[in-house]
Specification:
Oligomer: heterodimer
Strand order of the largest sheet of chain B: 6-7-8-3-9-10
Radius of gyration of chain A: 34 Å
Order of helices and strands of chain B: EEEHEEHEHHHEHEHEEH
Radius of gyration of chain B: 18 Å
Distance between the termini of chain A: 28 Å
Helix content of chain A: 55-70%
Number of helices of chain A: 25
Strand content of chain B: 25-35%
Number of helices of chain B: 8
Shape of chain A: elongated
Largest interface: A-B, 28 and 35 residues
Largest sheet of chain B: 6 strands, mixed
Helix content of chain B: 25-40%
Number of strands of chain B: 10
Number of strands of chain A: 20
Shape of chain B: globular
């Protein structure tokens, strides 16, 4: 037999099961939000870093003339270099069903068993050991519509076709899904590289550097020393890449940022809900507190009783939330994150400490939320408690709002509305907390939708730099007139513009060189680029040695301003260029734009271009794909060696996929916010009605009809919803702007093109009204259901 | 001990309750309202005292003062030599749980606990009478004393008003208190039930308890050992009764 005080606690839990469930649910939402987010974040980061650590990713790549393994051994002796290994890479295409072609990056590996840099963890099958064998990146199987043991055709740049047997699959964690990157990776032996037109030697020195130097950002001096060692061997260094943050890392970090922010916001809101509910619970129990004090209960004894009650809410909450949170994390990992981000989780076990956090939150939130109301409730004097003067401070005196209301002309506020407004102002603390939940829910919900729309706008803005349907890049430059004439001869082609694509590095003041930036040389008056100028201006027809940088370049070269002269190295020639403008990025990396004439002069290829941008009759995905195949066949027939093709619809889809992870998380959090907001309004309306059952009985006893009672109750809910929406709406614009900017910068190093979701904001108003009606209907129905005698005798 | 419960003064050396200059003021928008304007009083062990007076006279206020439910504005209250006027709220609560039994017109029972559990509650908070099993046994004994032993495991809502009041009295006796304060204990009861409850009080007084009962009911008041007539916050009459006849005569005087 337990002490009798605990029967009271158990009875409080059981006989008010709905309330017990609502409070537990309120806590559970917060525990679930933080738990799901923490678990997802932990799994994602753990497996992400584990994959990358296992792969021993390169910190830098030096491109040079062919070399053998012996040079790599010598480079490994350079101070600060942990490992150096030679690779060679060629790009090719693989035909798939329907005539389409998918890109593949083929890399040669000297010894699969002893990879020291950019390892490819083995998954299944076996490593290649013949020249016509290839190991595919595991996501490449689906991308190339192949299976282990199949023979695939590799189309080389010169049009030659080679057959390769797929011997197995490996993992390359450097890249996300090939649906995003537009290519997959395959590994071959040095003989295999020779077979595809490369040589047995290597042209890329891949380096891993001392971790402490990486942490301090001191890679450059080490790479300089490596280049010096290479040049001492008589080879020319043609370029370098300091491996920075990969797009995959941006996706993961952005997802983590969003998850963390929303997780804690939702937890805070659920805490407000809990405070409301526990405050109301204590207020409703004030007479019982009086009785307990009457018969000798100390404050400490009652405090322990109520805190135990609150602890039970917490235990119920985390019992509900923990399984759901871990399931959500595993589901998101396996169905969304894993494939998009190309993770190969070793385990989906959520670390114990995450469970610990969820338990702690489940316990601490209700305890902390309940602390003040319980302390306040147990502090009430026996006299006040027995007479149910309780915790109503100042309720009898008219506050500022009440006095303002009293001054309003009666024709503005009819009696039912006046009663409803006054009722909402009775418990200002509860009203404030409810409204905070609904205001934050409203502003964040609208902000999330705005970000979603901003993502669409941003994608549209990206396409402003690709105002064509199909791009065909060639292995070599060709005379522009012949190229465009050949293009226009293809059926379905409406327009064409030739671009010269190349690369350049910036030579910095200290003599160091940047990574290689893509150069796009445009014809005068190009119609296929509609730039968003952020600073300065776009290219003018008579510009010479003028360059426009995109925002991604500026991220890497933060010292550069419009008007500056920078030194660019192209084709081994260094020249000063005037920065005339900065334009927005297009999610395709850093780019330099210049006029075709001066580019041709600097590259000793005047009047020549190596890509055509084609406008076709069809603009939809299928139509563009069809034209892509058609153009490929057309140029091959004419003897042009095609390097790669792509359509803007595919480009758009790839960008969209990148955002899918982020948007998915945003929508999930928007749903949770909506749930918390609904719960907040429902609990407040329910509590308000429960407290006023006797008052409603009195109203009915003096003649108020059921309809009048219902109207007052519904109006109350509508007043709260409307007030919350107005304030939330006002806040939503700046919140949406900031969120949009932060997500854009985290993902793309540039803010998203912000678009405010006004229609969504207005739609949310009606949703809130509907929620208010739904939340009020139940209490309104209960209020009129009981007989007058029952409500007046309500205890 | 006579049937009025008037054995109090014989054989007892000191009063159980001593009140000096007791005042209680309530703050109102119109200024301070004095519910008690200066009460001096002594109550001896074993007395059955009725507090008589109209609504608003100060009966309940005086009961609240003597039970520590409310605090005096001025004056002194000594009960068993303890200075209530100097105790903190928490000390008053603890003292009341052990030394006083309080019975209200509205019963003030915990609706979710059974009759026996309601009686056990003071024992639990005061940590008296051992384990819950022993407390339950004692609760059943007290309910049997109140002639409602068979209702022990029912909720208050399942028993009649008179039975609820018996439960409240049993609860008041749970920790064997020094005195029992009853505020309109028969106010919600029919006359027959009221008589029965009053008879219980008489039995308790006969067993040596001291009872202070605020009441409107002049018929009941006539049957106690001492009547205190309170009017406008002051005791206007303090009469010890030696017989029921004297009590009826006093009541008739008051009604005149």
């Amino acid at each position: 037999m337990i002490r009798v005080r605990w029967y009271k606690v158990i009875s409080d839990l059981w006989s008010h099961r709905t309330r017990t469930l609502i409070v537990s649910l309120a806590v559970a939402v917060g525990v679930y939000a933080v738990g799901a987010i923490l678990a997802t974040q932990t799994l994602m980061l753990r497996e992400f870093h584990s994959d990358r650590d296992e792969a021993l990713l390169a910190d830098a790549i030096v491109y040079t003339q062919p070399f053998d393994a012996e040079l790599a051994e010598r480079v490994q002796e350079v101070p600060g270099v942990i490992a150096a290994e030679g690779r060679q890479t060629v790009r090719a295409r693989v035909p798939i069903a329907g005539g389409a072609r998918r890109s593949i990056e083929i890399v040669s590996i000297d010894d699969f068993a002893t990879m020291r840099v950019d390892r490819y963890p083995f998954i299944a099958g076996r490593w290649p050991n013949h020249k016509n064998e290839i190991m595919l990146e595991h996501m490449g199987l689906g991308y190339l519509e192949a299976a282990i043991g199949d023979t695939i055709t590799i189309e080389l740049a010169d049009g030659a076709e080679k057959q390769f047997v797929v011997t197995g699959i490996m993992h390359d964690p450097r890249y996300p899904s090939p649906e995003i990157t537009g290519f997959t990776v395959g590994a071959v032996t040095p003989d295999g590289m020779t077979y595809v037109g490369g040589g047995p030697l290597f042209t890329e020195m891949r380096l891993r550097v001392d971790r402490s130097q990486v942490a301090q950002g001191n890679i450059k001096p080490i790479v300089d020393a490596v280049e010096e060692r290479i040049e001492k061997s008589g080879r020319t260094v043609v370029g370098r890449t300091i491996v920075g943050k990969a797009i995959i890392e941006s996706i993961v970090n952005t997802a983590v940022m969003i998850l963390s922010f929303f997780g804690w916001i939702i937890l805070l809101l659920s805490a407000f809900l809990v405070i409301n509910t526990i405050s109301a619970l204590i207020a409703q129990q004030i007479n019982q507190i009086g009785i307990m004090k009457l018969v000798g209960a100390s404050r400490r004894q009652m405090f322990v009783m109520y805190l135990s009650l609150v602890l039970v809410f917490g235990v119920m909450a985390f019992s509900m939330a923990i399984p759901l949170a871990t399931w959500t994390a595993r589901y998101l990992m396996t169905n969304l994150i894993q494939d998009l981000v190309n993770l190969r989780p070793d385990s989906l076990d959520v670390p114990l400490w995450v469970y610990g956090v969820m338990v702690a939150i489940g316990v601490f939130i209700p305890v902390l939320a309940g602390l003040f109301p319980v302390l306040q409730g147990t502090r009430v004097t026996t006299y006040a408690a027995l007479n149910e003067l309780g915790m109503q401070t100042g309720a009898s005196s008219a506050g500022l709002f009440e006095r303002l209301l009293a001054r309003l002309p009666r024709r503005w506020l009819q009696r039912p509305l006046l009663l409803a407004v006054r009722n909402t102002l009775r418990h200002k603390g509860r009203l404030l907390r409810t409204m905070i939940v609904m205001i934050l829910g409203t502003s964040l919900f609208i902000a999330v939708i705005s970000v979603r729309i901003s993502v669409n706008t941003t994608q549209e803005d990206f396409l402003r730099y690709h105002q064509y349907d199909v791009q065909v890049q060639f292995q070599e430059s060709h005379r522009i007139a012949r190229l465009e004439s050949a293009t226009l001869a293809a059926p379905g082609v409406v327009g064409v513009e030739s671009w010269a694509l190349g690369g350049a590095t910036r030579v910095r003041a200290d003599g160091g060189e940047s990574n290689r930036y893509q150069v796009i040389a445009l014809p005068e008056g190009s119609t296929m680029v509609d730039p968003i100028v952020q600073a300065g201006r776009w290219l003018a027809p008579d510009d010479e040695y003028a360059v426009v940088l995109n925002a991604s370049v500026v991220q890497d070269e933060p010292d550069v301003r419009v008007g500056d002269r920078i030194t660019l190295k192209m084709n081994e020639r260094e020249r000063a260029w005037q920065v005339v403008g900065i334009v927005g990025a297009d999610a395709q990396g850093p780019k330099l734009y210049m006029n075709q004439g001066v580019f041709g002069y600097e590259n000793r290829a005047p009047g020549r271009a190596n890509s055509v941008q084609v406008i076709t009759e069809a603009h939809d995905l299928l139509g563009q794909k069809t034209m892509e195949s058609l153009l490929l066949q057309h140029f091959e027939k004419l003897g042009y060696a095609v390097r790669t093709t792509r359509t803007t619809q595919t480009l758009n889809a790839q960008n969209g996929l990148m955002f899918d992870v982020i948007v998915g998380f945003l929508i999930l959090n928007a749903v949770l916010l909506g749930l918390v907001g609904s719960l907040g309004l429902s609990t407040t309306m329910g509590i308000n009605m429960l407290e006023r059952i006797r008052e409603i009985g009195v109203l009915r006893a003096i003649g108020a009809s059921n309809g009048a009672i219902r109207r007052i109750v519904l109006l109350e809910g509508l007043v709260i919803a409307t007030l919350s929406w107005v304030i939330g709406f006002a806040l939503s614009y700046p919140v949406a702007q900031v969120m949009s900017e932060q997500i854009g910068v985290a993902l793309l190093d540039t803010p998203l093109s912000f678009t405010y979701a006004l229609p969504a904001a207005i739609a949310w108003f009606f949703v809130l009204l509907a929620l208010a009606v739904a939340a009020s209907l139940g209490p309104a129905r209960n209020a009129v259901r009981l007989t007058i005698r029952e409500v007046l005798a309500y205890e | 001990m006579n049937e009025q419960g008037n054995g109090a003064r014989s054989g007892q050396n000191a009063p159980l309750i001593v009140v000096k200059g007791l005042q209680k003021a309530y703050r109102t928008p119109a200024g301070d309202f004095y519910a008690l304007k200066g009460i001096d009083l002594e109550i001896w062990p074993g007395e059955f005292v009725a507090l008589l007076g109209r609504s608003g006279a100060g009966k309940s206020t005086l009961i609240n003062m003597l039970t520590g439910i409310d605090r005096a504005t001025a004056g002194e209250i000594w009960i068993e030599g303890q200075a209530l006027h100097r105790m903190s709220e928490s000390k008053l609560t603890q003292w009341r749980g052990r030394r006083v039994g309080v019975v209200f017109q509205s019963f003030q029972l915990m609706p979710m606990l059974t009759c026996a559990q309601n009686v056990m509650l003071p024992m639990d908070f005061a940590k008296l009478y051992g384990s819950p099993r022993r407390q339950y046994a004692r609760a059943r004994e007290l309910l049997a004393l109140m002639e409602i032993g068979e209702q022990a495991d029912k909720l208050p809502a399942a028993v009649s008003g008179g039975q609820r009041q018996r439960v409240a009295i049993a609860r008041a006796l749970a920790n064997d208190p020094t005195f029992i304060a009853a505020d309109e204990p028969t106010g919600n009861l029919d006359s027959r039930t009221a008589d029965a409850v009053f008879a219980l009080f008489q039995q308790l007084v006969a067993a040596g308890k001291t009872i202070l009962m605020a009441t409107h009911d002049r018929e009941l008041a006539a049957r106690v050992s001492r009547v205190l007539h309170i009017e406008d916050g002051l005791i206007v009459e303090d009469r010890r009764l030696t017989s029921p006849v004297e009590g009826h005569n006093l009541v008739a005087e008051m009604e005149a």
